[in-house]
Specification:
Helix content is about 10%, strand content about 50%. The protein is mainly β. The strands form six sheets. A five-stranded mixed β-sheet has the order 1-8-7-3-4, with no helix packed on it. Strands 11, 12, 14, 15 and 16 form a five-stranded antiparallel β-sheet that branches.
Length: about 325
Amino acid sequence: MRFYIAKKHELTTFFYSFLSRFDLSFHQGKPKPVVSWLKDGQPLDTKRVNIRNSDRDSILFIRGAQREDSGVYEMSLKVDSFEDKAPITLQIVDLPGPPTSVKLVDTWGFNAALEWTPPKDNGNTEITGYTVQKADRKTGDWFTVLEHYHRLTATITDLVMGNSYCFRVFAENQVGISEQSAVTKEVATIQKTGIHYKPPEYQERDYSEAPKFTTPLLDRAATVGYTTKLLCSVRGSPKPKIEWLKNQMVIGDDPKFRQISNQGICSLEIRKPSSFDGGVYTCRAKNEQGEATVSCKLEVKRMFFFFYLTFYLSVCSFVFLIIYAKLILH
């Protein structure tokens, strides 16, 4: 009866100090196949390796696996002149060692440049990155500034003026980060007097502007005895001085008028105007850059029409009531 190994393995990775086990299955043959194992073409050390064979599989145990147990293992089955083989590559990996060296290359401003070399011991697997930490010599506390960093040079930024720093670097592989680190012998001191600020030169801009009315005064009509208000808006720099005039005469501090100017909004309130308050009103704005004026006409109307209309309606209502009463009596 023919036989063959059912599974073949290319690469198996085990962490250092764990139990390593191979389990290869094969189809049963008659007579019973002869099973043998080799490592790198040499017989196994039976003191550290145990092999258990059954009718359908062969299991190889390595207790307390070490890195030297890494290699190519080969199981072979043989019955008379028939033979089949199954190779498997075993890689025992461990934490890497620290970088060989790290040095401070340069210090400028708030920055420090570092450079280091890969570790001599990579843990039997590829180095995947580096972790960089800094410590202020005042406190001695370490803080991580770079993780999973792939280069062998780095610039550390945002250091504090007046402080002195040490740096250390850890190596990292698929197992984890090295237990020890490489520490800089040099100290990076951020000098307080190392920075001189020179303000940029620029040409000053003149924001001066002559007064200009953005909203004009509008002609309007008011009723005798009812307070009215005139409104306009102006801009200018420096802030213009506002004056109100009536018929080309400055109103001044006349208590009948209330003058307000706020954020460029100018208003003139005329309290209970009479027919004599009608006329042409002017708002004048003046500053160092110039002068501007705006005017409107105010008409103050009497209430005679409303008085006569009310009297007429009252008389008509009285006459109507008399006529209606006579009709009812008759």
